[in-house]
Amino acid sequence: MNAPAVINEFAKMRHLKVGVFGLAMVVAVVALALFALVSNPDVDLGDSSAWNALLAGMSLGIPLVSPLLLAVLASRQTDMEHQGNGWLLQATSGLTPGGLCRAKFMALGLVVAVLTVVQSLLVLLAGKVLAGILPPAPLGHWAGFTLCMLAVNLVVLAMHILISAKVENQLVALGIGVLGTLLAVFSQGLPPVAAHLTPWGYYSLALAADYDVSEYVTLPLAYPSIAALTLVAALLFTVFTSRFDRQEA
Amino acid sequence: MSSPPVTPPVVTPPVVATENLTKTYGGRSVVDDLNLSIPAGCVYGFLGPNGSGKSTTMKMLLSLIQPTGGRVQIMGRPMTRGTRRELLGSIGSLIEAPPGYAHLTGAENMRLVQRLLGLNREQIDDAVRTVRLQDQMDKKVRNYSLGMKQRLGIAMALARRPRLLILDEPTNGLDPAGIEEIRGLLRRLADDGVTVMVSSHLLGEIDKTANVLGILSQGRMIFQGTRSELMTASAPDVIISCSDPQAAVATLRPFDARHAGRSDVAIPALDDQQTAGAVAALVGQRIGVYGVRRDEQTLEDVFMSLTAGGGL
After folding, report:
1. Would you say residue B59 lies in a domain?
2. Which CATH number does the domain housing residue B208 bear?
3. B166 and B290 in a common domain
4. What is the mean pLDDT of residues A73-78?
5. CA within 20 to 30 Å of B292's CA: A50, A108, B125, B223, which one?
């Protein structure tokens, strides 16, 4: 890992409003989770299914918010290289385009990891403190859900960094982000096989809870599928960035 | 008694040397069999019309593009993917548009370069002072003029204190004052021992700065040498002022003489011996010879005549 290149990516985030976009991502997910809890009069705060309401709210909120915001973050961080002749500047300083993409992923990936964990913890805290849910939280399932959402978020982020690096017109990247949002939300209603076809479909495989007939129920997380997605994405990201390394300026 | 040992003359190897450097795209040669030689400490003017292969050559020197054929030697070492990273530490460059992240200030941009190359603060401050940008460093780059962006790009290239500086059309789009400022900067850098390679499609922009010239046309090197060698290589017309130019043109027809206004007759590609013969022929015909001189031609004329035909 090229540490100075990663630190530089954090330095480049100045004036890019990364904090504002990150805050929007967290606030939107927390608000949607709490809305799922308070909007349903059947939810009993003395019953452990109340936690399922929050998990279900997050399971809808993250696919609704993340794909587009991840596209925006990746686009803003990558477009500057097209606009500022940064690819050549870095290449003539010994940092290849592939290395630059990897540095961007490390820096933005850390930001996305923090945001994903923070929004998950905030919902947990809100359930305990604000809503006053009495039974203990299902911490194992909660952690598994957070981990799965983080994995899918990072895969989508990596894909968007590659798209924004390859296609100079960032409207294309943002358009794909909008399409991803639709796929992420609507794949919850599709059979699991269809959800496996695109990276955004995996948000529905990380569904932690859902409303079933008259109450919120826990759903099993598709760990093997999400682990497979992560491995394949890591491999593809390595292959593509290595190709960028050999690409002529 | 033994004779004193003979010290061989010190021959400084060129900072940049290419051997049959070639780049083709889909069967079309963009750079063709190029043999560059850039002596240490000079300002090398790399000239050629747009699309003649200057930028491609410079990118091959920096290993940003892989040559289809031939070799590149930088400071005596082959430039390959393996040596590239190390050699780039001694090469500053400005290729195509000036770099700079518009949403950051000049100082923030310089800090990125400092961190990436592991430079100290003094190196950054020196580079900024060299391009006289120290009063503009807190301004965002999006608010810079083109000239300021060019200078920031050069400061980024200079920060590593390079032995070789490669600048691709650094005066592009600048006003006359900006061009003069870049010229002065290049002269100062060369005085400090930095070897500068600077490309342009306009001879006038680097004519006064470069002491060695390389002229590229359609990917081929059509001239390489000093300014005076260039003038010699393209011998100007001999102009003979005489009493009867019509008769003189008729007498000198074998030399392709032509009437050149008033009492002048112009004869192309004539060496000194032939000039003496032409004068003798005129005198033999009882035509009064008032004066003989070489036509004055600017370097621009030479450049245009060399590049227009695609080669010598």
Report:
1. yes
2. 3.40.50.300
3. no
4. 96
5. B223
- Cα distances from B122 to residues B119, B127, B137, B185, in angstroms, run 8, 9, 15, 19
Same domain as B284, residue B217: no
Structural domain contains residue B311:
no
CB contact under 8 A, A8 and B84: no
Tens-place pLDDT, residues B180-219? 888 888 888 888 889 999 998 877 777 778 889 999 988 9
Residue B123 to chain A, least CA–CA distance (Å): 15
B264 with B151, same domain: the answer is no
Q: According to the model, what pLDDT value does residue B311 have?
A: 43
Q: Which residues pair with B211 in a beta bridge?
A: none
Do B49 and B166 share a domain, yes or no?
yes
Dump strand ranges (E) for chain A: 209-212, 215-218
Six token digits for residue B216: 């590229």
The span from the CA of B21 to the CA of B26, in Å, is 17
Q: Are B24 and B30 in contact (CB under 8 A)?
A: yes
Contact A248 B104 (CB under 8 A): no
pLDDT at B2: 52
Q: Is residue B145 located within the same domain as residue B274? A: no
Q: Please, what is the average pLDDT of chain B? A: 87
Same domain, yes or no: B227 and B271: no
Asked if residue B278 lies in contact with residue B240, where contact means CB atoms within 8 angstroms, the answer is yes
Into how many domains does chain B fold? 2
Residue A52: its H or E element: helix A49-83
Q: Cβ(B47)–Cβ(B216) under 8 Å?
A: yes
Chain B's closest residue to A5, CA to CA, is B116
Answer yes or no: do B221 and B284 share one domain: no
Tokens 């705060």 belong to residue: A45
B88 to chain A, any CB pair closer than 8 A? The answer is yes
- When pLDDT is averaged across residues A46-74 and rounded to a whole number, the result is 93
Q: A-B interface: how many C-beta pairs under 8 angstroms?
A: 76
Probe site for chain B from A9, A10, A82, A93 (most B CB atoms < 10 A): A93
The number of helix segments (H) and strand segments (E) in chain B equals: 11, 15
Nearest residue of chain A to residue B117 (CA atoms)? A93
Q: The complex's ipTM?
A: 0.89
Q: What is the pTM of this model?
A: 0.84
pLDDT per residue as tens digits for the range A25-40: 999 999 999 998 888 8
User: How far apart are the CA of A116 and the nearest CA of chain B, in angstroms?
Assistant: 27
